[in-house]
Design goal:
Elements (H helix, E strand, L loop, with lengths): L6 H15 L6 H27 L2 H27 L5 H23 L2
Length: 113
Amino acid sequence: MDTLEIPICKKSYELYKTLHDFRKVIPKHERFTTFERCERIILDIIEGILLAAQLPRNEKSPILKNVSLKLNIARIFIRLLRENKAIDDKKYLRIEKIVNEIGKMLGGWIKSL
């Protein structure tokens, strides 16, 4: 199976695309601070998932735990964007739904190791 066809890869890709689509409406002072940092963290998440997918089973755990940590950090940055009114509640809920789905997939993957 192609790595990009793995459901958690698709969902992470969807998360980045969704967040990136909001870039135009983010106020400039947030776009180059919190928002940009959040984008980078999500890219790190995608990178970690792709890396873990390629590694042997016994080497996946530390990578996936790091991805889990980064996902929690992304949650905080996304919440900050909402609280600072950089994104409205509708956008926040849309992003948070995807983040929660990734979290469930990631938790299942970690438990399976």
